[in-house]
């Protein structure tokens, strides 16, 4: 009876052992299954696929080849910038006309071709009524070709249009000295007759200081036209020191200071101009400027 009962128990134990053995074998042989990639130990040399991936940072090489070399980039940048560079040694267009006058011509080379170009541009500006630019060009022409009759006449007309009557009178006179029977002699004589009653002949024989004051005033006016208020102020200060009796200098100084937003001193100079010349050619403008400043600052 006991042996009969122990027989099924034996078979159950055997089946259980067999099942456990199969599970252990399956665990040990799972690396041999075809659908699982073989494991690689840390010390094992890489397989063929791994070598291939380590060999080729091919995209990096391609990217390196596609990018231009730094030297090439620099050359390309330099070539494009050179095309647009400004030659600082060339004639500066924004330089004040009065800073280079015929009196300084000995420091400039004789260049009639360049002078002729300046005359052509000056005549163009004169027709366009851009008198400050024309003044600049005619001054420059006389630097590179002193005593040029055409440039002298153009300068006279420009000064005449700008109400620089004493300078215009002298320029017309200079033209007649150069070409007494020139093509514009009759016009120069007529202009001198028209200007004559409006100027003080005593000032025509002005001193060197007065000539330099006129030059400084012209320089300042050119800078003022370019909205370079600080440079204009410096020129007007020079003119004021050289010709303190000239009322226009005070008006121009007021304009430069107003452009710099230095309103209170600007108002002082406008008032000084009105004290010296209450009915002068800039009196209306001076009064308007004083009103504008007073509206901002108060009385």
Structure notes:
This protein has 299 residues and is mainly α. The protein contains 14 helices and no strands. Among the domains are: 97-205, Serine Threonine Protein Phosphatase 5, Tetratricopeptide repeat, CATH 1.25.40.10; 208-297, Alpha Horseshoe (Serine Threonine Protein Phosphatase 5, Tetratricopeptide repeat). It has helices at 2-28, 48-55, 58-66, 70-84, 112-127, 131-144, 149-161, 165-178, 185-195, 208-225, 229-242, 247-259, 263-276, 283-297.
Break the fold down into its secondary structure elements and pairings.
Elements: H1 2-28, H2 48-55, H3 58-66, H4 70-84, H5 112-127, H6 131-144, H7 149-161, H8 165-178, H9 185-195, H10 208-225, H11 229-242, H12 247-259, H13 263-276, H14 283-297
Helix pairs in contact: 5-6, 5-7, 6-7, 7-8, 8-9, 10-11, 10-12, 11-12, 12-13, 13-14
């Amino acid at each position: 009876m006991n042996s009969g009962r122990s027989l099924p128990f034996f078979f159950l134990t055997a089946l259980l052992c067999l099942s456990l053995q199969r599970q252990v074998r399956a665990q040990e042989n799972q690396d041999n299954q075809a659908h699982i990639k073989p494991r690689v130990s840390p010390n094992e040399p890489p397989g063929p696929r791994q070598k291939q991936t380590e060999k080729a940072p091919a995209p990096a090489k391609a990217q390196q080849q596609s990018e231009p070399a730094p030297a090439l980039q620099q050359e390309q940048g330099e070539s494009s910038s050179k095309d647009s560079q400004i030659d600082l040694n060339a004639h500066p267009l924004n330089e004040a006309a009065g800073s280079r006058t015929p009196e300084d011509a000995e420091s400039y080379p004789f260049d009639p071709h360049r002078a002729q170009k300046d005359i052509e541009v000056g005549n163009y500006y004169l027709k366009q009524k851009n008198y400050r630019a024309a003044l600049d060009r005619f001054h420059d022409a006389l630097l590179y070709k002193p005593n040029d009759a055409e440039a002298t006449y153009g300068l006279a007309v420009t000064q005449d249009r700008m109400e620089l009557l004493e300078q215009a009178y002298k320029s017309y006179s200079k033209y007649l000295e150069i070409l007494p029977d020139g093509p514009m002699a009759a016009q120069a004589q007529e202009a001198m007759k028209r200007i004559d009653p409006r100027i003080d002949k005593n000032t025509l024989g002005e001193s060197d200081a007065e000539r330099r004051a006129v030059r400084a005033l012209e320089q300042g006016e050119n800078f003022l036209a370019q909205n370079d208020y600080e440079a204009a102020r410096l020129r007007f200060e020079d003119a004021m020191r050289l010709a303190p009796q000239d009322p226009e200098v005070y008006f121009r100084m007021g304009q430069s200071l107003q452009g710099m937003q230095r309103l209170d001193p600007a108002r002082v100079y406008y008032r000084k101009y009105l004290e010296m010349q209450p009915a002068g050619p800039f009196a209306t403008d001076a009064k308007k400027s004083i009103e504008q400043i007073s509206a901002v600052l108060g009385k």
